[in-house]
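Annex B. Sample input.
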Amino acid sequence: MRHGKQGHGLSRSASHRQATLANLATSVLESERIQTTTVKAKEVRSLVERLISFAKQDTLHARRQVLRVVRKTSVVSKLFSSIGPRFATRQGGYTRIIHIGQRRGDAAEMAILELVDRVVTAPTTDDGGKTGKKAETTPAEGAAADAI
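Annex B, continued. Sample output.
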């Protein structure tokens, strides 16, 4: 019987599953967006939401609870300094899952797991200071204008 059993096994041993979920949670908190399978995204979502709730408390005990899962101190400091305060007024629902279709090769359902109010930075383009358009006429138009 399946009474009292929660979550998916992910076809892994308990220690491997725990390590996989910890690594996925660390990646979500570090980059604020990951692409993974739908089943893994659903599993790691509850872990990430619990970690963000700990970050909102901002106590020593909460920091130690987060350090049990997230082993990178840089990610823990980011969680407590920027992510936790960002969600201070929100009562849960810190992440969203966006289904993106099937993966080529094994047709696994893929999804994007991201934080709800993720800070999006515009990609910077290094064009050497050149801003503006090229010539307003195409070469064919230029040749036609010269012929007249």
